[in-house]
Amino acid sequence: MVAHYGHGTLSVGEFKGPPQDRTMRLVADFQRAGVDAKAVQSLITERWRKLVWNIPFNGLGIAAGANVAQVLNDEHLHAAARALMAEVIGAAGTLGYAIRPDFIEFQIERSWPMGEYRSSSQIDYEAGREVEVESIWGEPLRQARGTGAETPRLELLYALLRRLAGERRG
Predict the structure, then answer these.
(1) Pairing mode, if any, of strands 10-12 and 37-39?
(2) What pLDDT was estimated at residue 7?
(3) Taking Cα atoms as reference points, which of 73, 57, 54 lies closest to residue 65?
(4) How far apart are the C-alpha atoms of 142 and 126, rounded to whole Å?
(5) Which of 55, 66, 112, 168 is deepest in the core (most CB within 10 A)?
(6) What is the spatial distance between Cα 50 and Cα 82, in angstroms, rounded to a whole number?
(7) Which three-class secondary structure state does DSSP give residue 43?
(8) DSSP reduced 3-state for 154
């Protein structure tokens, strides 16, 4: 069984370069099937845009045991989420992937209607399944370090998640 609780758009693009005719046909196929899809100019930039939400909300969901509403309604978790978002945007920028700072507010505003939504990482963690610690937190952190970007909150969250996930695996 597959359960999908989508709160966004499917982004489709080419591995390298701008969308091609085949990209546009695929987007149209998804849209005809009722999937909210769009073509993007850069899949790598789009991945960093996704990390702006995933890093704080997936990570704080596990580390604090908090759903989206709890993160947003807790003064300290909310501030931590915003600070993590800013770090991710800053890291992306040092790598050449420009994301506007107002994207933070966009992500916060689109998160309020999610209510008690728990991220896939949080659901996996709570169910005792493996969590994608390296791909969601580790690799972006390593790339940021490679440019000299300052990411102290991401470093701390990554260390916490590695420990928590490691304890779960035994």
Answers:
(1) parallel
(2) 56
(3) 57
(4) 26
(5) 55
(6) 14
(7) helix
(8) helix
Q: Residue type at 149?
A: A
* Residue spans per domain, the chain: 8-41, 43-169
Tokens in use for 81?
């989420």
Distance from chain centroid for Cα 81: 11
Q: CA 85, 91, 93 angle in degrees (round to 5)? A: 105
What is the CATH number assigned to the segment(s) 43-169?
Answer: 1.10.1040.10
Residues (pLDDT < 50) of the chain are: 1-4
**Encoding tokens for residue 68?**
């989206």
Q: What is the pLDDT of residues 17-56, one digit of tens each?
A: 899 999 999 999 999 999 999 999 999 999 999 999 999 9
13: Cα within 13 Å, side-chain hemisphere = 15
CA 97, distance to chain mean position in Å, is: 15
Nearest CA-CA partner of 14 in 1, 27, 32: 27
CA distances, 94 to each of 2, 83, 144, 162 (Å): 37, 17, 8, 25
Cross-strand pairs, 12: 39
CA–CA separation, 122 vs 129, rounded Å? 10
